[in-house]
Amino acid sequence: MVKGKKNSDQRKKLNREIRQNNDQKRKIKKEIKELLYYKKKIQKIFKAKTLKTAMKHFNELKENLDELPDVIKDYVKKLDKKIDRVLEQVKDSNIPKTNNLVELFFKVTFPCKIKRIYRTYEGSLNKIKIDDLRWIERNVIEYHKIKNSIS
Asked: In this predicted model, which residue has the larger pLDDT, 4 or 114?
């Protein structure tokens, strides 16, 4: 009888932990979804056809700065300082969006092994997927680890 009660208590404790973990998982998924939403809004800035639409998308983010998550808020503040330089490829149609000319314009030249990644369509897609996963890991998962260690 004692052993059965002990097992029952253990089961209840584990079920409580599972519920807590599921709640935490739901919160993290919601946060990831929100961050991906803002990431798409930022991508709209760079995919814009004209400077006017790019600035419109940027100003929408900038106006709602107080409502943004901290990670996105910091990024928008940094982007605000260099927005004219960053959107140069939107202004000038002679600058392609992806090419060595872009690297030269921004005074950055990547090593050959990084350049080779982008030569194929499949390589570009893989790089984007990996970057998304790394971004989520750096900004969401690490944030929760730090947040939980403080609590």
From this structure: 4
